[in-house]
Amino acid sequence: MSSKRIAIAGLGEIGKTLARKLAQGMPGLTLSAIVARDQAKARAWLDGEGIACPLISLDDLPEHADLVVECAPAAILDQICRPMLGAGKQVMVLSSSALLPRPELIELARDRGGQIIVPTGALIGFDAVTAAAEGTISSVQMITRKPPTGLAGAPYLIEKGISLDGLKSALCVFKGSARDAAAAFPANVNVVAALSLAGIGPDRTTIEIWADPAVSRNCHQIKVESDSASFAMSIENIPSENPKTGRITALSVIAALRKLTSPLQVGT
Questions:
Q1: Alpha-carbon gap, residue 91 to 69, rounded angstroms
Q2: CA-CA distance, 23 to 29, in Å (whole number)?
Q3: Which residue among the candidates 64, 220, 244, 247 is catalytic per the annotation?
Q4: Which of 144, 161, 208, 228 is deepest in the core (most CB within 10 A)?
Q5: Distance of CA 158 to the CA centre of its chain
Q6: Vertex 142, ends 137 and 147: CA angle to 5°?
Q7: Does the active-site annotation cover 64?
Q8: H-only helix segments in 96-177
Q9: pLDDT tens, N- to C-terminus, the chain (268 residues)
Q10: Residue 177 DSSP class
């Protein structure tokens, strides 16, 4: 059986972790191409890691890949997804906040036989949420606590004039729907966007976002009420070199890719 060709769009912390893992070898998967904004910098890094892989443009992705993993700024999600989905191929989307206001991408995937995959990322329990959604879910509530540096630069904070500099105690900076949170914090709460897609949608999923100088990890608590089960989940993610992203996010992508060709799949 031929290998599935995997391309990476974006060579930040997640993209680099994934490139290393694919280059080391994953059964049934091949690192086929990389898209990077700064190709000279990307080539220097690849050469330093001893990774032989072509650097290509976004438009060339369908020619080089069966699936592309989006590890890029949310602003270019369209440019990554449209060529691949239009060619009936797969895109693994990490910027799920950017997916919420773009339902036309899901329609494109449906019309052309493509597929959008949203990995579990920094959360847990998606299997339980998607299972409960086959019945009736009455509520999904989430509370996120992050170190102030993990929220720095968010458009909502800038717009509202909220400064986190020198914060001494926990501050609730947002309370509302997943849809509104995704627009307000596009680089910080992809977790709640993904949770909403797994469950009852972005308008009925609610979230509180706290900047908390007492925590050193990205902490998420989720509570779900449904006609099949009531359950609560919590996770504390160790940040990567990028404080906005937990280390487990890249590992979640690797696990999701491994499932694509594994002879044994555990979980729905």
A1: 6
A2: 10
A3: 220
A4: 144
A5: 23
A6: 165
A7: no
A8: 96-99, 103-112, 126-133, 155-160
A9: 579 999 999 999 999 999 999 999 999 999 999 999 999 999 999 999 999 999 999 999 999 999 999 999 889 999 999 999 999 999 999 999 999 999 999 999 999 999 999 998 888 889 999 999 999 999 999 999 999 998 988 999 999 999 999 999 999 999 999 999 999 999 888 999 999 999 999 999 999 999 999 999 999 999 999 999 999 999 999 988 877 778 899 999 999 999 999 999 888 7
A10: E
237 sits in which H/E element: strand 230-237
Domains, the chain, ordered by start: 4-121+248-261 (3.40.50.720), 126-243 (3.30.360.10)
31: nearest Cα among 257, 250, 249: 257
Token pair for 257: 């890719």
Between strands 4-9 and 29-35, the pairing is parallel
226: Cα separation from own chain's centroid: 25
Q: Which is nearest to 109 in space by CA: 134, 130, 155, 78?
A: 78
Place of tokens 């339980």: 128
Q: Which two tokens stand for residue 130?
A: 């998607």
Contacts of 264 (CB under 8 A, 6+ apart): none
Pairing of strands 218-226, 230-237: antiparallel
